[in-house]
Amino acid sequence: MKAVIILITAIMCSSPFANEWYQKLKWPTDRVQDQVKLLPFGQEFKLNHFLETIHIQENINIQFLLIPSLEGEDIDVRSSEILKSISTNSQKSILFLLSLSDRQFKITPNDPMAFSLTEEEINHLVKVTVPFLSQQEYSNAIQSYLKSLLFYLNKDNQYKVPDLSLNKNYNWQNFLFFIVCGVLIFMLGHKLRKSPKIIDKSMGLVKHTDNHRGLFW
């Protein structure tokens, strides 16, 4: 029984499907910093992975910073300071800064990015974002902004912006994979708890053998 459990576990963990889930579940970068928890964790996690892919394949640094307050500081000044700290002179970078209590947000590109976006295009990014922010639909605001931004940056090779809904993209294979893994872990744990026992008659004790080391809107 033990050998069967180990064999099945090894097959599951070495399958391409397991590797796919490892890529999904490994800890992402901090390209989305949601200090006010406007996005559920799953959405922030998924968005971070997507922006990391863009960064690796296109060398484009897209950042989101969602903060509780500017604390009296001018949003233009704060945005410029943050952009300088996260970007280099040779890399295209753009920052989406949102202050919740001030009801302001700012889209700021660095100089290399500014050469790729016209003023009209940046204004359009604001235009497609504001209606969702006004309705407090923050996920939709980010999704709409990203779709337009990536269209302007690369019209020939369009990336599919992830659906930020938490209830989609889970098919029956994903569900079955987690069920099987859960059963295997339970069975293995149950097996370990029932480790063989040795009776030491001379001491009158029962010993367990150790066989399992182991902008405004």
Q: What labels would you give this structure?
A:
single chain, 217 residues, alpha/beta, Diaminopimelate Epimerase, Chain A, domain 1, four-stranded mixed β-sheet, 8 helices, 51% helix
Description:
The protein has 217 residues and is an alpha/beta fold. It has a domain at 7-153: Diaminopimelate Epimerase, Chain A, domain 1 (Roll). Helix content is 51%, strand content 15%. The chain has 8 helices and 6 strands; from the N terminus they run ααβαβαββααααββ. Helix 1 (2-14) packs antiparallel against helix 8 (172-193) and helix 6 (119-134) runs antiparallel to helix 7 (138-153). The longest helix has 22 residues, at 172-193. The chain is globular.
Supply the CATH class of the domain at 7-153: Alpha Beta
The major pleated sheet works out as: 4 strands, mixed
N-to-C SSE string, H for helix and E for strand:
HHEHEHEEHHHHEE
Poorly predicted runs are 17-27, 166-175, 197-214
Write the layout of secondary structure elements.
Elements lengths: L1 H13 L1 H10 L6 E3 L6 H18 L1 E8 L7 H12 L5 E8 L4 E6 L1 H4 L4 H16 L3 H16 L18 H22 L3 E4 L4 E4 L9
Parallel strand pairs: 1-2, 2-3
Antiparallel strand pairs: 3-4, 5-6
Helix pairs in contact: 1-8, 6-7
Brief account:
The protein is α/β, with parallel strands linked by helices.
